Amino acid sequence: MYDRDKESYWMLPGYMKGIEAAGGIPFILPLTSDIEIITKIANMFDGFLFTGGHDVNPEIYGENVEDVCGELCNERDDMETALFKQVVDLDKPAFGICRGIQLFNALLGGTLYQDLPTQFKSGNKIEHKQAPPYSVPVHNVYIEKGNPLYRIIETENFKVNSYHHQGIKELSDQLISVAKAEDGLIEAVIMPQKNLS
User: Cβ distance 83 to 42 under 8 Å?
Assistant: First the structure.
């Protein structure tokens, strides 16, 4: 993630520890628009985690930025857009968390709610932007049987923590929803035409 005020890159330890626990070696990538560097990165690593952080710029999915939209980072949007396209072309694994899944959807032709509290209407109100401590699960996610996520998790529902104010509105026709929150918000997707092993 990029802190513009401090001109620094930073990462939540949980992302790094999760990759290590899964047997990987985590690297934080530079925020660059140099396509040559991005191409080298795409070819160098086995898989990619697109983390949470800044809001995705609504211009990516053809909307104007509304007052309810949060902080944007166009440099990050540009870099991750270029990287994602190369990762997809190379058929390498890409895992998105929070902003990551939202960016995937936007880049593949879907749209986002710029602010869930004011734009997502559901009869079952749940908290998607919880108060601390952030590690405490606050709502259920329901997984559809028969998809790769179900085969990994081996359960139909479980509680998750949640800290985001944006979410998928119109799902890209290149993605399939595989899990939803109890209010119907899409929480997990797959790109079925790509390698899911």
Answer: yes
